[in-house]
Amino acid sequence: MSPGHAPRADGAPEGLLDFVTGLLAREDAVLRAIREETPERGLPPISVGPDEGRILHFLASAVGARRIVEVGTLAGYSACWLARALPADGVLHTVEFDPRHAAVARENIARAGLSSRVVVHEGPGAKVLPTLTGEGPFDLCFIDADKEGYPVYARWAADNLRPGGLVVCDNAYLFGKLHRDDLPAGDADAPKVPAMRACLRGLADESLFKSAAMLPTGEGMAVAVRR
Ligand SMILES: C[S@@+](CC[C@H](N)C(=O)[O-])C[C@H]1O[C@@H](n2cnc3c(N)ncnc32)[C@H](O)[C@@H]1O
After folding, report:
1. Closest CA to ligand 1's atom 7
2. Residue 4 resides in a domain
3. pTM greater than the 0.85 cutoff
4. Structural domain harbouring 169
């Protein structure tokens, strides 16, 4: 750090990160409406935020993605960010096991003008992913569903990504509990800790991925590049 430069991350001066979001992670009216209306439509307010949406768009653009898989659609907010990075003949397969979420997502994807590039599959990730193998290999796989399923989804990604393709896992800090061995048995996140650790160990397996890193978003976004 050069003299005079303010510290970043947690020590960022007030307003800096909001300023950067305003510059780089702007949502247009459609994306903002999809995100803001999600709880109004009775769905949980657990989509990625605008900064994470922009990171997804950046990553998909950086690898020239033409074929993407997402596990965990919710209302389609992250799906819209990802699909916007696709060329007109690209495709995003997104998997959602709650039929109500899938229905809202289809509506939102249509209003964003992205229905021709996005297929919403209804069902549990572990059952649907094997049916998508023939559509690959994929350029990017975004995992954002049940945490217990992450090791299985990440392994499927390793088997179905092209060399240089990316796996991206949201909530990798596991709500700040990833490192905790002392969680009370009643903590609903306790069973998710070993699953998220297993997922991250998989990403660190250098026989499968040539580089893995944690993007230090608020929730932690783990990324790895297929060997
Ligand atoms: C965090 S939300 C996804 C948010 C979305 N990626 C976004 O940022 O807009 C997780 C979603 O995964 C779905 N889900 C949970 N378990 C699942 C499973 N086993 N298979 C597929 N989807 C699942 C939930 O119903 C929920 O809609």
Report:
1. 47
2. no
3. yes
4. 16-226
